[in-house]
Amino acid sequence: KNHLRWWIGGRVGTAREKPRSCVAVSAMMARLAHVLVGLLVLGCRGGNGSSLRFHGVQADEVQAESYTSGRKLLGKEHKHAEGELIPLYANKVGPFQNPSETYQYFDLPFCRPEEGLEHKPEALGSLMDGNRLILTKYELKFKEDTDSSVLCSKILSPKDLAAFRQAVKHDYYFQMYYDDLPIWGFIGRMEKITGASNAALRYYIFTHLHFDISYNKDRVIEVNVATDSTQIFDITEPRDGAESNSEEVQFTYSVAWKETNVPFEKRMDKYSKYSFLPQHLEIHWFSIINSCVTVLLLTGLLTTILMRILKNDFLKYTRDDSLLEDSDDSGWKNIHGDVFRFPANTSLLAAIIGSGYQLLTLTVCVFALALVGVFYPYNRGALFTALVVLYALTAGIAGHISSSYFSQFGGKNW
Asked: For residues 109 and 328, what is the distance between their CA atoms, to the nearest angstrom?
């Protein structure tokens, strides 16, 4: 309570005293934002044995060297012993042409672990980014090859088959993480079968995944996943209008390890060069420079025209005021002196200006962090975490600028 009283500025016990301006309200809300952000970050980290649930994700306190099911949680150095079981996490699925539309991996009827779904604890920014890492049944042991291993045999109901058909129709992909390295793959494929009368579409799902993993000494460097076009299962809906029957499908996987000379520090370089998902944002530097030059030229031309038109008016108003008594002013000339008057809602204007300074400082700080390489590719939630933390830290700038402008406008009780 004492800490909260200090954050809010001593107004906890004085509820009868109301803020007299928007500036006071904004300052109080900024301090409350500090408290809320601190509580959220503490809850996500699971401090003092506590936990926080975000949309069904239980983020409990987990030690870096233990895992609830006996599997080791990845440490900061990502070092592993031969034969160590490294967990493979499934993140999300979604249409390839619309990366912003994503769903949880097990929204589709994949093979689920027998002990139930187990989420990996994530930071606040990663949760805001929509990441929900869930432990899968794949057992990929460090430096141990696997020719063919059965993941599970699953009976797909008509509803499950319809869900897979919908996913294949929209070209769904999946995303997984192995040793904090992202991997992608497609769920299935469509084929157009041409017949004597008309063409028909056939839907298939991939039942086998092959993992190619590269390592350097005791660290994982690169992970790739591939599907086998020969190991597929037909999930096409019957053409005669009959209902689909339940089908039994066997999902398998294989693993191949190979040694590489790429150092651990450069294992994320390939993700900065290309992306699995389609890139809709392309920077055309020539068009940007051309637009900037055009704007500068038009601004200069407009300024020259206005200066020539208003030159006589400027000379007129710089003379003695006695000569202007009989002048016939019209238009903007009647309000030329209003620029020296204080605005009506000074508190609101001051609060808006302070918020603008805060957003400007926030933008500059984010760009500075990006230049030094903090937001490296696929650092889950780093940008959102930085935005939340910097927004809370720059709240003081908004309060200082708002109160400064409010006092300059002649405001009291600032």
From this structure: 81
State how far the Cα of 8 lies from the Cα of 161, in Å rounded to an integer.
56
Q: With residue 256 as reference, give the H or E element that holds it.
A: strand 247-259
Token pair, residue 301, equals 């031309």
Helix (H, G, I), strand (E, B) or coil at 311: helix
Quote the tokens at residue 412.
Answer: 């009291």
SS3 12: coil
In one letter, which amino acid is 289?
I
Q: Has this prediction a pTM greater than 0.70?
A: no
Closest CA to 228 of 201, 252, 247, 256: 252
Q: Which residue has the tokens 């019957």?
A: 238
pLDDT in tens, 313-363: 667 666 655 555 555 566 566 666 666 677 788 888 889 999 999 999 999
Taking the C-alpha atoms of residue 236 and residue 93, their distance in angstroms, rounded to an integer, is 21
DSSP 125-166: HHHHTT---EE-S--EETT--EEEEEEEEEEEPHHHHHHHHH
Q: How far apart are the first and last CA of the chain?
A: 26
